[in-house]
What we know:
By secondary structure, this protein is mainly alpha-helical.
Amino acid sequence: MAASTPTLAAPRSPRRARRPNTELYSWVFMRASGALLLILIFVHLFTNLVSGGGVSAIDFGFVAGKWAKPVWQVWDLLILWLAMIHGANGLRTIINDYATRTGTRLTLMGLLAVAFAVVVVLGTLVIFTFSPCPPGAPADLLPSFCTAG
Length: 149
């Protein structure tokens, strides 16, 4: 009798999932946002500490003068949003890795979402509604750089 070699059937081609690979996008975002955050933060630190006269020169007036220019409002807003999204994404990954029970994972994800939303909304409001010289305020309560009027 001749020994016949068994033949294997050709493997089936894997079916492609039609949903996006969110973990891949998350991974790519973490690398891109981390690099962009480095640039944003170092320019922020250079502007505030080196060209701004050091940490002792940072006060209410310094921030008011800086945020009087829209470019610095947008710059600080980008730092806020990117840092919060980057950090929340990292915490989401940690929660998914270490929270084994579904209830615990959902609770932690909910708390993370609430904390994220509160910080982003309040930070955005502070950046865009900041007014060091509100109209109609008593002159004795206004900073020295505001003109009483």
